[in-house]
Specification:
- This protein is 64% helix and 2% strand.
- With 162 residues, it is mostly helical.
- It has 2 domains: 3-81, 434 Repressor (Amino-terminal Domain); 86-157, no CATH class.
- The protein is elongated.
């Protein structure tokens, strides 16, 4: 088994996609992909980041021992400057919610007040959060459709710039 295979094993163990894992570890997305594909090997700075995330570096390098460091009784992810999984998921949901609202505005060619836009982002965020805790995709799609319909009623047509 390679370092890349073990990194992927750690990522899947933590229910992360590659983008989330690269953000959590503080390495560029393309670099993380190369690590997982065994195209390149991580250097000392990356190994330090992996260790801060709780990965046992000996396991990562050799496959021996446990995947996670034994001193995780105080999780490494709660150290100052590190992102924990919950915060990373929050940030990802928030980003997706803002993108969904902006895309809806783009499709309908309009704008909304900051307050209405904020309310819309919260609605989409809650929908994404419910999806994570086990709601069905059909339920989520229906909710998103309802939100898009309600958003479209709040959108004001853009005024041409004179």
């Amino acid at each position: 088994m390679t370092i890349g295979t073990r990194l992927k094993q750690w990522r899947l163990y933590n229910n992360l996609n590659q983008d989330d894992a690269s953000s959590l570890l503080g390495v560029p997305f393309s670099t993380y992909q190369k690590y997982e594909m065994s195209v390149s090997k991580p250097g000392s700075e990356a190994m330090e980041a992996f260790s801060r995330a709780g990965i046992d570096v000996n396991w990562l390098l050799t496959g021996e021992g446990e995947m996670l460091r034994a001193d995780r009784s105080t999780p490494a992810l709660s150290m100052p400057g590190a992102l924990d999984m919950n915060r990373l998921r929050f940030m990802n949901r928030l980003r997706l919610a803002v993108e969904a609202v902006e895309e809806t505005l783009r499709i309908f060619g309009g704008e909304m007040t900051p307050v209405k836009k904020g309310e819309a982002v919260v609605q989409v965020y809650v929908m994404l959060e419910e999806e994570e805790v086990g709601k069905t995709q059909a339920h989520t799609d229906n909710m998103l459709e309802d939100i898009v319909i309600s958003l479209s009623k709040e959108i004001s047509p853009k005024k041409p710039i004179e």
